[in-house]
Amino acid sequence: MSNRIVVKNQRNDYLPQHLTKVLVISLILLVVCIAASLAFGSRTVGWNGLIDGLFYPEVDSYDASVVRQRISRTIFSLFCGVALGVSGALMQAVTRNPIADPSILGVNTGASLFVVSGIAFFHITTANQYIWFALAGAVITAIFVFGIGSMGRGGATPLKLVLAGAATTAALSSLVMAIMIPKSSVMDQFRFWQVGSVGSASWHSISTFLPFLIIGLAAGIISASALNALALGDEVATGLGVRTGVWRLVAAFAGVLLCGATTALAGPIGFVGLLATHVIRLVLGGDQRFIIPISAVTGAIILTFSDVIGRLLGSPGELEVGVVTAFTGAPILIILAMKAKVRAL
Q1: Neighbours of 312 (CB within 10 A)
Q2: Of 28, 103, 173, 182, which one has the greatest count of Cβ atoms within 10 A?
């Protein structure tokens, strides 16, 4: 008997047994991470300052002002975590690869190459310019990696996609360095962006990012049922009336859109989507109707918590969140690869 017991509701939908517990725990952790993000930093704010900053705008104390200044950063980190969590879930579902992630498949590096090219040759400086260059790089790189991974016998197997992504990442990273090193001004502008950070968050960057987040989330959630059918194989999915090519394209577009937009504004932050989706799949199973939305919450928790850890470890400065996620994510990736042996989903 499967260890994933399901119960049937009145509409004949099957719900994972632990869904309610996961939702409650996730929401509690999310609230804790939000409070920690507002309270901790170069200056630690107490409970009274936190309450005053959030609910009493007439209070003009220093602690309340610090909390208000951190609100935009906290919201931005939540949004970026949501986008990366959903992007990881979608990429794993589309490629049927349990260790797929924007950073592993080279999508982040493709976005980075286009951004550094935009800085060096087109003198881009604004968030709106960054986001379009990053999206173009993410889309082109995703198509290239999937095309390379699809060559040869067996098509796009999980192992071939990972190898194609690793090779593409190495090649594009070399191009990034080749463009950046000769130009010191480009290096200065790019190096802070490259490590991945939510420290430069502003209300303008949030408003720029929000439309892409909404479109990507909507497309991902709409494609969830079709992705469940695709997991059974293209022939079975077609027999069930699913237009496999269309829905695979929709899901891939949503994943790349979310990843590219996040990379443009926060830099290439890796491993969040991988970790968020794996945690949820271990607990709830493989139903994308639950994996996608709850991966969004889990991604927000992971990224916001990592940002808090970076601030605490680097105090009185801060350790960039991309460094924290890479430091924790790389060993976990190795363990997952060894245990899963890169099996298809």
Answers
A1: 14
A2: 103
Domain of 181, in residue numbers: 75-300+321-340
Q: Is residue 253 part of a domain?
A: yes
Confidence check: pLDDT of 129 > 80: yes
Q: What is the CATH number of the domain that holds 156?
A: 1.10.3470.10
- The answer to whether residue 290 sits within a structural domain is yes
Q: What distance in Å separates the CA atoms of residue 131 and residue 307, rounded to the nearest whole number?
A: 22
Report d(CA 264, CA 193) in Å as an integer.
9
| Average pLDDT in the chain | 86
The per-residue pLDDT for range 204-262, each reduced to its tens digit, is: 999 999 999 999 999 999 999 999 998 888 788 888 888 888 998 999 999 999 999 99
Catalogue the long-range contacts made by 157-163 (C-beta closer than 8 Å, 24 or more residues apart). 157/344, 158/95, 158/96, 158/97, 158/98, 158/99, 158/100, 158/342, 158/343, 158/344, 159/342, 161/95, 161/97, 161/100, 161/105, 162/97, 162/99, 162/100, 162/104, 162/105, 162/342
Number of structural domains in the chain: 1
R_g of the chain, CA atoms, integer Å: 20
Confidence at 1, pLDDT banded by 50, 70, 90: very low
The reply to whether 206 falls in a domain is: yes
Q: Does 51 fall in a domain? A: no
